[in-house]
Write a structure and sequence with these properties.
single chain; alpha/beta; 2 domains; 5-stranded parallel sheet; 11 helices
């Protein structure tokens, strides 16, 4: 169709039948047809955005069991889900020990952002550093940096699991510095911010990095038990009951 309305071309007969049954006026019929076309286009953009985002899954906050983390205030997480921090090009940090659901919440926020038609991208810190180092070694650093600078929302998972060398820490600083007040970062970490000097290996660089990351940042701590351990223990109990 020359107007670029492929869905409308396929469904026009169906819409005409609905309009006839509802005795719609001409303007209402046009509004119906164009609204449906726009909805299909939006759904297509969202599916494409999720596909290229590298998210490990597409879980939402509806899938998160807040009752398992009684010290976590659901209102703080749901406030983030309004995406006001994304609109403000601010950041969010989710801190706590492994297994508490930090990545789940980070992914859920990214999914919400994608559904609001923000571009998103997910990476672990280790993957990001490895990719940037490889690009730097082949003279493609500027191009590769763009992968982490273009999205409206960058999710950086598992910060602090491996200490960084100074050259690696400098690459991380470049990403955070260049995104400062230009795009949002959602970061998960098992380290407190006071421990970032150990992670980065340079107190001055750690301070400069945190200065930009935390200037506009909502911080949520999740210090409860591990979801993964909970699920593993439940599976063991089921196996034991079956064997009894």
């Amino acid at each position: 169709m020359k107007l670029g309305l492929p869905h409308l071309a396929e469904a026009l007969t169906q819409y005409a039948q609905r309009a006839d049954e509802a005795k719609m006026g001409y303007l209402d019929f046009i509004d119906l047809a164009l609204s449906e076309e726009l909805a299909v286009r939006k759904d297509r953009r969202i599916r494409t955005g999720l596909r290229i985002s590298k998210l490990p899954h597409h879980k939402t906050l509806d899938d998160y069991d807040f009752s398992f983390q009684p010290e976590l205030d659901p209102r703080k997480v749901k406030d983030l889900a309004t995406l006001s921090f994304v609109e403000a090009k601010a950041n969010a940090a989710l801190l706590g020990p492994p297994g508490g659901g930090k990545t789940h919440i980070a992914v859920a926020l990214a999914v919400a952002a994608c559904r609001a038609e923000y571009s998103i991208y997910f990476t672990s810190l280790d993957d990001m550093v490895r990719n940037l180092k490889a690009a730097e070694a082949t003279g493609r650093l500027t191009s590769k940096l763009g992968s982490y600078l273009r999205p409206a929302v960058l999710v950086v998972d598992e910060v602090g699991y491996q200490p960084l060398e100074r050259a690696e820490a400098n690459l991380v600083f470049q990403v955070i510095s260049k995104r400062y007040e230009k795009g949002s970062i959602i970061q998960t970490s098992n380290k407190t911010f006071s421990e970032w000097g150990q992670v980065i290996g340079d107190e001055v660089l750690a301070t400069a990095t945190l200065d930009r990351l935390l200037h506009h940042c909502d911080v949520i701590s999740i210090n409860g038990p591990s979801y993964r351990l909970k699920n593993r223990l439940a599976a063991i109990e089921r196996d034991q009951e079956s064997a009894a």
